[in-house]
UniProtKB/TrEMBL annotation:
One Pfam family hit: ABC_membrane
Organism: Phytophthora nicotianae
Name under which the protein is recorded: Mannan endo-1
Alphabetized UniProt keyword annotations: ATP-binding, Membrane, Nucleotide-binding, Transmembrane, Transmembrane helix
InterPro entries assigned to the protein according to its UniProt record, in alphabetical order: AAA+_ATPase, ABC1_TM_dom, ABC1_TM_sf, ABC_transporter-like_ATP-bd, ABC_transporter-like_CS, P-loop_NTPase, Type_1_exporter
Domain ABC transmembrane type-1 residue range list: 1-228
Gene Ontology molecular function: any one: ATP binding
Subcellular location: Membrane
Length: 510
């Protein structure tokens, strides 16, 4: 019975974890921007809440089944020896059970306390994950004591709640056993009277009392799982809140239009937008921009002006509050999201590589890509030479987050991953700004070569203006709107132009 319960519980929890994990991947980016949905918090929640559910479905359920079975056997044996004494047991058994549960329920943790305890556990797990992921920064800033103090504070919340729960459980258990002893005394008194009248024999009384005494521990512990369902209820609410949430931007939804071919014209029309986590900080306030098919457009401006926001809206990481973003004249919200993202490739400032080989990481851009396609993409991204110089070539393991290779090499692999998809729209979000001069020169050369290979709509978000002089159009963003647009030669001719001022400022800084 125990083995069957454990196996069934493990299978159930595995399915719940898979459903929760799949639901997390389905959520919109705005959901992840909330502090309570940070990666560390989600990891801790998935682990701790699932463990709590496992405790309920396996240990508590198994204990309940054992106790119920014990009770049935006890009453059957007692009935065999003395039905009179068994009737007394049956009469007082509900009272014993109800009194035990009343004690537990009257002093057990309420829903708010259980939620506070659960939230503290999740926050502690999130803090631990963040500290380990950022251990170099923690060490360089000497934050060990500070983070340890925060971790202790969070653990103290759980400690106090769990200590109280332990005292409650002990009191309830003691009360249950005390009631059992009172019942045993009652049985002894009544049975002694029946023996004197010849109603039952001493052997019958001894057998019933012995069986009852030996089983009293199981009977008394039947109510010990009363606090577990409360914790499990909170854990279940946390997990199924994620599973049941249908995001406003659903990455798995197949609804929407599909084009047989893409021209690549893009338009931002009267876009108003603020990030969900910072609704008070307006990013776009009437943003307008039209991009013709095949054009290379560079977005420039001061830090925080919303250059990268345009890329986030094109990828539909977010939707504008008002206004629209369209592809070939159709609002992106009317298009199939998986199809849309399949037609776009994004290379960001800090590309993410996954643990695995170089070939596997490039093939993520096009699942099922052949080795020939992977090699061609690497060549187009100017990364073929350095890959071939590695001992294992394309089979070189890049390590966790690409930690085994340099920043410039990571960027070129990410570029190859974008190329292998053969996208209709290429988005470059400050793809060289985090690199040293030599790596930037190599990657920029790769980008320039890539733009000449195929005419596709390309948007470049750039901080270093020297990298975008050859763009077809340069759009300057300020205070949530495009304030200047034109070629490099056109914009530098404007006497008080914002682009000209940005160029002069960078020249002075260099």
């Amino acid at each position: 019975m125990a083995a069957g319960t454990i196996v069934a519980s493990e299978r159930l929890i595995a399915r719940v974890r898979l459903a929760a994990y799949s639901a997390m991947l389905r959520q919109d980016i705005g959901w992840f921007d909330k502090p309570e949905n940070a990666s560390g918090a989600l990891l801790a929640r998935l682990s701790s809440d699932a463990t709590t559910l496992l405790a309920l479905t396996s240990e508590s359920l198994n204990r309940l089944l054992v106790n119920v079975t014990t009770l049935v056997i006890v009453f059957a044996v007692c009935f065999y020896f003395s039905w009179q004494m068994t009737l007394i047991l049956l009469a007082v058994a509900p009272l014993l059970t109800i009194s035990s549960f009343m004690v537990n329920m009257s002093v057990a943790d309420g829903d708010s306390t259980s939620k506070k305890n659960n939230d503290a556990d999740v926050s502690a797990g999130a803090l631990l994950t963040t500290a380990i992921d950022s251990i170099r920064t923690v060490a360089s800033l000497g934050m060990e004591k500070e983070l340890s103090s925060k971790y202790i504070e969070l653990l103290e919340v759980s400690k106090q709640t769990d200590t109280r729960g332990g005292l409650v459980a002990g009191a309830a258990f003691g009360f249950s056993l005390g009631m059992m002893l009172l019942v045993a005394a009652l049985l002894f008194y009544v049975s002694s009277r029946w023996i004197s009248h010849g109603t039952i024999t001493f052997e019958d009384m001894f057998a019933v009392l012995m069986v009852f005494s030996l089983s009293s521990f199981s009977i008394g512990s039947a109510a010990q799982g009363a606090t577990d369902p409360k914790k499990a209820q909170q854990s279940a609410e946390n997990i199924f809140e994620i599973i049941d949430r249908v995001p406003p931007i659903d990455a798995l939804s197949t609804d929407g239009k599909l084009f047989s071919s893409v021209n690549g014209s893009l338009e931002f029309r009267d876009v108003q937008f603020a990030y969900p986590s910072r609704l008070g900080a307006q990013i776009y306030n009437g943003y307008n921009l039209t991009i013709a098919p095949g054009q290379t457009v560079a977005l420039v401006g001061a830090s925080g002006c919303g250059k990268s926001t345009a890329i986030a809206l094109l990828e539909r990481f977010y939707d504008p509050h008002t206004g629209s973003v369209s592809l070939d004249g159709v609002d992106l919200r009317q298009l199939s999201l998986p199809w849309l993202r399949d037609r776009i490739s994004l290379v960001s400032q800090e590309p993410v590589l996954f643990a695995g080989t170089i070939a596997e990481n490039i093939a993520l851009g096009k699942p099922g890509a052949t080795r020939e396609e992977i090699t061609q993409a690497a060549q187009d991204a100017s990364s073929l030479d350095f890959i071939r110089n590695l001992p294992d070539g394309f089979d070189t393991n890049v390590g966790d987050r690409g930690g085994h290779i340099s920043g410039g090499q990571k960027q070129r692999i990410a570029l190859a991953r974008a190329i292998v998809r053969d996208p209709d729209i290429l988005l470059l979000d400050e793809a060289t700004s985090a690199l040293d001069n030599e790596s930037e020169r190599i990657v920029q050369s790769s980008l320039n070569r890539l733009l000449k290979l195929k005419q596709r709509t390309t948007i470049i978000v750039a901080h270093r203006l020297s990298t975008i002089r050859n763009a077809d159009l340069i759009a300057v963003t300020e205070q949530g709107a495009v304030v200047e647009i034109g070629t490099h030669d056109e914009l530098v001719q404007l006497p008080e132009g914002r682009y000209k001022q940005l160029l002069a400022r960078q020249a002075n800084q260099s």
